[in-house]
Write a structure and sequence with these properties.
The protein has a seven-stranded mixed β-sheet with strand order 3-2-1-4-5-7-6, sandwiched between helices. The chain has about 270 residues and is of the alpha/beta class. The radius of gyration is 18 Å and the shape is globular. Helix 4 links the parallel strand 1 and strand 2. It contains ten helices and seven strands. The longest helix is centred in the first third of the chain and has 30 residues. Helix 1 crosses helix 2. Helices cover about 40% and strands about 15% of the residues.
Length: about 270
Amino acid sequence: MWATAVGVARVRALETEREDPLFRDPLARAFATVGGLWPSSPPPDDDAARRRRLAVSFSIVIRTKFLDDLLQQASASGVRQVVLLGAGMDSRAFRMDWPEGTRLFEVDTAAPLDFKASVLRQERAVPRCERITVAVDLREDWPGALAAAGHDPAAPTVWIAEGLLIYLPEAAVELLLARIGAQSAAGSRIGLTLGSRGVLERFGADAASGSAASLWVSEMPDDPVGWLAGHGWEAESHTLRECAAAYGRPIGTPPQREERPGGLISAVHR
């Protein structure tokens, strides 16, 4: 699944090259190039597939900006521990400005972390905070591995699960949230991206075998704010449409159906 992270890097590289980017990710192009997806990637088979790719790419851009803002707000509030779950080709340790004393943990399996390390060496990339990689499968005892790497559950943490939960079955999502909560001091924050209701039907039903959409298995609950309250989080839910408009990238087409609570989530642990 980690190869999809290279596809995400390609989207971020394309955004970086715009005249008016919502963010800049100077390492994204290198990840995409070494991963074989730059300057181009295999074209979709048909118009429907092309529309899906454009929609997914747009959502990646908006969610990246949303979570960048959340991380900046958490840092401004004094949080100095960051945990990226399923970190993939995330380069926030290198591209964002971090307050002194920030420790950023990248949790993922060994394969993507090794690939990433080789590209970072090639680019001579230098992190702007203390960056700690934690090679562990999220189906295993990742809290133990994180603690062994130096994470302090007594201090507030900002957690990011970007483009991750949609790949996990419901039971695994619940376990992940329970484990995050157990490692979160009061004042910790979390940023989640959730598959919106109906996304599996719209995107996954006829997705090409091996594509990212073909691996999606879960959607967000009907009431994500209430769901997170049950896990001890005070959450706010935002739709892609709302955030895109706020960032000056409004979606030009009207909603095709009633828009339910959104899949971009920010929350504070009480």
